[in-house]
């Protein structure tokens, strides 16, 4: 059972308190060397689809709609994501992203989704 899932930008220094660090972006962050990122798992399958990612990029003022669409994507793919989700059920988990505003991105949506999966 995960007691804590935190969110960090990939540009923030990795710390031992982070626990398992999971990159949850579809694309590898520009200018970040893999050995310096401190990423344990790259779970790009948990990121929004390329179509949804591009849609949100051109409709960034529609965060609520993006939230709905992303949750639908996660729910529709839940059976294929089960193995990855089980792997992430750690005492400490840090979702890592390169987005400029993590609080207004897919990551808090994913965080709530994972917490709900782990509480089952």
TrEMBL record:
InterPro entries named in the record: YeaO-like (IPR052552)
Top-level taxonomic group: Bacteria
PANTHER family found in the cross-reference section: CYTOPLASMIC PROTEIN, CYTOPLASMIC PROTEIN-RELATED
Protein name listed in UniProt: DUF488 family protein
């Amino acid at each position: 059972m995960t007691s804590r899932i935190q969110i960090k930008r990939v540009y923030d220094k990795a710390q031992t308190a982070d626990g398992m660090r999971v990159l949850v972006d579809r694309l590898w962050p520009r200018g970040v060397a893999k050995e310096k990122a401190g990423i344990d798992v790259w779970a790009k399958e948990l990121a929004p689809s390329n179509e949804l990612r591009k849609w949100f990029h051109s409709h960034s003022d529609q965060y609520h709609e993006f939230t709905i669409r992303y949750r639908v994507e996660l729910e529709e793919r839940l059976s294929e994501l089960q193995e990855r989700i089980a792997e992430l059920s750690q005492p400490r988990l840090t979702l890592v992203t390169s987005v400029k505003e993590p609080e207004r991105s897919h990551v808090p949506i994913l965080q709530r989704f994972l917490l709900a999966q782990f509480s089952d």
